[in-house]
Amino acid sequence: MNIQSFADNYLGGLKTVLAGFDLERYEKIVLMIMDAYHDGSRIFVMGNGGSGATASHFACDINKGCCMDLDKKFKVMCLNDNMPTLMALANDVSYDVVFEAQLKNFFVPGDLVIGISGSGNSENVLRAIRYAGRGGGRTIGLSGFSGGRLSETADVSFVAAVHDMQKVEDVHMILVHMIMQTVYGLLHGASAGPCDQTADS
Fold first, then answer.
1. Rounded to 5 degrees, what angle do the CA atoms 109, 110, 115 make?
2. Across the strands, what pairs with 47?
């Protein structure tokens, strides 16, 4: 393997998928997150594996990065962060219910539920999205490849249309950082710069 050629090809593929970035759906997602903030609704986010890491990162960025200096706070909960609860549900019931079961403890109508699944077919994510939809919640799905079932189930879906899981996860992480900086700007005024108060993280 030629390492530099590989890197050049990888970055070229990433540039190609980013060239098709759906700005309209991105705006819808940002506005749904802002609506949840203004309504005082909770935002639940979840995923498995790398998508779980993205979900955890998302909760950190929004809870801390967007409103640290504001009296009104976001209420974002990452459902894959509580490992004892997740493992207890997986062991005693089924891994398919690990997110849906947690929503039954906390979810109320109007809450926003965000599912992240590279394939778009993670059953535990799909069950949580369906539960929220039936219960009067608003739902967002982030997926890749051809979108999977998640793109057909969520109210608003964003698909990183590339058949490469790592590039899908790259795009989702870029999306999370774009959301963070856009939300920060909307809350702090048009003159606000990047979220430099988070430089230590």
1. 100
2. 116
